[in-house]
Amino acid sequence: MTGIAFGESPRWHDDRLWFADWGTKEIVTVDLDGRSEVVVRLDLPSFQAICFDWLPDGRLLVVSSREGLLLRREPDGSLVTHADLSGLSEYGWNEIVVDGRGNAYVNEAGFEFPGGEFSPGTWRCSRRRARPGAWRRASPSPTAWQSRPATRR
Question: Where are the domains of the chain?
Answer without folding.
Answer: 46-149
